[in-house]
Predict the structure.
Amino acid sequence: MAQNYDRRRINGPEDSYPPIFEEEEEDTLSWNIAKPREGRSPQDIRPIFLQPGLINQANGSAYIETDKTKIACAVYGPRQSKTTTFSENGRLNVEVKFSPFSCARRKAPLRDAEDRSLAVSIHQAVLSSVRLELLPKSTIDVFITIIENDGIEGCISSGTIAASAALADAGIEVLGLVASCSAAALGDEIWLDPTEKEARKSEGTLILACMPALGIVTNVWQSGRMTVEKATQCLDLCQERCTDIHAVVAQSLLETSKAS
Amino acid sequence: MSSLSKAEKSYIQSSLLSKPPLRADGRALYDFRAVALETGVAPLANGSARINIGRNAHDGGGGTEILAAVKLEVETVADGEGVDGGRVVGTVSCSPAAYPHLPSGALDDLQHDLTSVLHDTVSYLEKKSWLLNLDVIVLSDDGNVCDALFMAARAALWDTKVPRTRSVEYQAKKAGNNAEGNRDIEMDEEGKSGFDTRITKKVTDFELPDYWDEGEILDGRNIWPICVTLNLLPPVFFLDAALQEESSIPLRLHLMFSLPPSEKPRLQTFRLLGPSGVDVPLIKSLIKEGEVHARSIWTALDAKLKDEDIRRNQKARDRFLHR
């Protein structure tokens, strides 16, 4: 912990607690089994806003917004690997950082701003789409900044979409665009693209990342309790929705490349 | 983990794909190496287990060795950390001796990855509550750490005993009494189960009538999940990969199942790892196959754990009598 301490910052007290707000009546999701989902139908996802090429100095970048989830992603590279050892395949580094104000509770810079499990999941999702065998001795860095967070599931799936779009924007050869979608099991129903509150109510969640153009699944990340039938049902629903997301990503990439 | 040359990798892959499939140690594709398990190895923990997969029968060395221990703590809910009803924190530490070739940064990353898998899987389950610390140490790695991790965790949790609690309150006596015996201790005489420390209205603290090695077994100890790792080398898959096999395959599928006899089988965690992809129909069939293999691991582990219970209680008592 000592080396993770930046004396140039105003660090604030060592122990602090976030203020507790009185929860408003409509704010608490008063859902119980047999009630329909509030705001949208179970298989609806939140609208996606995707803008590639927002960060000028990066080789490729993308900004994604799905309702309350806001993520910026920058891709640098391919550039020469710093290590001296020869590597036949290129390396893909993914780093995910939370901005301090992204969650209900402050994420202290340096200390808990970095989330490795998110980075591992997104890395797994994009890794098999990138043609790393064409880039020996080189490294591609993907930096993802979470500006606003509405549930870890949304962060992983939106982060994956942004990373894949940014890689395409950087002109790095990929086998296909990676689209990703999450699902939550509540009672008998399956809700796609759950918000943080919905995910907290659910028994289990599943995140699927795939390349819809090739029909290949690159990442599955399920947590919580689910029956096997439910999990396979989630897989099907997510894959179906990924095809739609793929169209959104392709469209926005096309528009950006036409505009420039 | 270990670095293999391309030639070695292709040798292992082609022998796995040959008919009949061949593995370096002569096992069939779905065979496990010998698993050795012992519970109650850490006397100061509330529950513990040690597991070894693939120990060499001749010299007693080698294999994946994992030590798991459960330590219970009491925490205050009002501070924000505690949760009403108790919580579970899983941690995995990897001994540097198990990974001599890894730099410390990579070791931290590996530790973190294993911790997040364990923690996410086991923690899905206000005043004062128990905090269950599940600490797992990887002593040596000879492949298939994940399966061993969950077997050890399940064994340790199975072995865990929660001390009974009794709620107490210290209060000043009402006016009218004389000065002597000014403080009175009020007790709630019911011996409640360990995990239920949600204290009645006015009681502020509790005491433990048990010694550290007594207590009740953890409620619902039957639902703790186990993991089965399917190592994919399409079109085949195999179980319990040794270290070299592990580094020569493109894709792994971790399936954590909870298979209590009274309920439907549940999938607790399900993850895909590796630089390759699969299609959805294959995943579905793999989940089905995984469930079958998970069930056989589950049954074997259950039998062994019951055996361990008998060994440590009944047989130990008999031996004490006939000494």
